[in-house]
Design brief:
By secondary structure, this protein is of the alpha/beta class. Helices cover about 35% and strands about 25% of the residues.
């Protein structure tokens, strides 16, 4: 078997992140080629990427004249790749030492594995652990939308979500996942040849869920391998823009129609007309620079969404927690929400913080 790992990165105005991403890759003990597909990011990104190509012998950069979308750009990278192992990697990701060295042998020997992902942190200090991914479904969409329209229903829905997430955050064992985030998907060429590449109809979002669903349908498993680690500088800033919201809604519609048909997808879309739930709890204002009183041995859940679904998690070890300045500096301007829980998931307190 070819021992080469092909790493495919789609760039769109993220060249500054790519610098660190390539540095982390260059420090791995692995035989790699890196293919960056730039989706018409502009002159600055082109200059940076062309310079980086002179610094790394393993790097090839492809420039698209137009933004071809995330799915198509990944497929373009795969078309020129040579490795038997394939890693689809976001540009705002940094690989921890020995990440690939540990992952590659697992993927080669676990014949039932369709793809694998490592433990993903939100920050380089490894304070906040990113959440598990769940496969979108008609039933999950219905549950979530009904819950978000009702205070009591939402409380029960949030409790179930937190309970499942805590079991993931507390695990240090290799396990099978429902879905894997597109930030880091390592798979094999034979798997992609069998199930197909990314569906290019998705403008953005849901393309990773669609791929995971097809891998599972082929009888293969999606693995979480926490013995390898990486950092994904998870920045939600773009998700609030009108363009991103439109792409999310369009991709969700494509996904639901693909797997449940137009009729059921249209009926489900009617739930979006339900009014937003009324708050049945209060949220206290807090400051990023001041310590929060925390439940010892509990969890601090952090999200740009008031629902805290999804969120990153920090295991609390002291009676107080203060956000590190370097962590806050990387956050986009906006509102952020904190939910404090006990070790068993019981809600302890809620806060809202603003980054200006």
């Amino acid at each position: 078997m070819n021992g080469l790992l092909s790493i495919i990165i789609v760039n769109f105005h993220s060249a500054e992140y790519v610098r660190d991403c390539l540095k982390g890759i260059s420090e791995q003990n692995a035989d790699v080629e890196v293919i960056i597909v730039d989706n018409a990011s502009g002159a600055h990104d082109r200059d940076v990427l062309e310079y980086l190509q002179t610094q790394y012998a393993f790097l090839t950069v492809m420039f698209n004249g137009n933004n071809e979308g995330f799915s198509k750009a990944n497929n373009q990278g795969f078309a020129v790749s040579r490795g038997e192992q394939i890693l689809f990697l976001n540009p705002d990701t940094f690989l921890s030492p020995r990440c690939l060295e540990r992952l590659i042998p697992f993927l080669r020997t676990a014949t039932e594995a369709g793809c694998v992902t490592p433990k993903l942190w939100m920050d380089e200090s490894k304070i906040f652990l990113l959440p598990p991914s769940y496969l979108p479904s008609l039933w999950r969409k219905m549950q979530a939308r009904l819950a978000f329209s009702s205070g009591p229903l939402f409380a029960a829905y949030q409790d179930r979500w937190i309970s499942k997430a805590l079991s993931f955050w507390n695990s240090d064992s290799t396990s099978v996942l429902d879905a894997i985030s597109g930030a880091f998907i390592m798979t094999r060429r034979d798997v992609l040849n069998a199930v197909g590449l990314f569906d290019e109809r998705f403008p953005l979002y849901f393309e990773d869920s669609d791929l995971c669903r097809r891998i599972r349908r082929a009888g293969l498993k999606l693995y979480y391998f926490p013995h390898s680690e990486a950092i994904h500088y998870y920045n939600q800033s773009a998700k609030g823009s009108p363009e991103s919201i439109h792409k999310f809604m369009t991709s969700e519609k494509i996904y639901m129609e693909k797997y449940y048909g137009q009729f059921l997808a249209r009926q489900l879309s009617l739930l979006d007309r339900l009014p937003e739930r009324r708050k049945h709890y209060s949220i206290r204002a807090a400051s990023f620079s001041k310590p929060l009183d925390t439940p010892e041995n509990g969890y601090l859940l952090f999200s740009p969404l008031e629902t805290i679904i999804p969120c990153a998690a920090h295991r609390v070890t002291d009676a107080q927690f203060t956000f590190p300045p370097d962590f806050v500096a990387k956050l986009a301007v906006g509102m952020y929400y904190v939910l404090l829980t006990t070790i068993n998931g019981k809600i302890y307190d809620r806060f809202v913080l603003e980054k200006r």
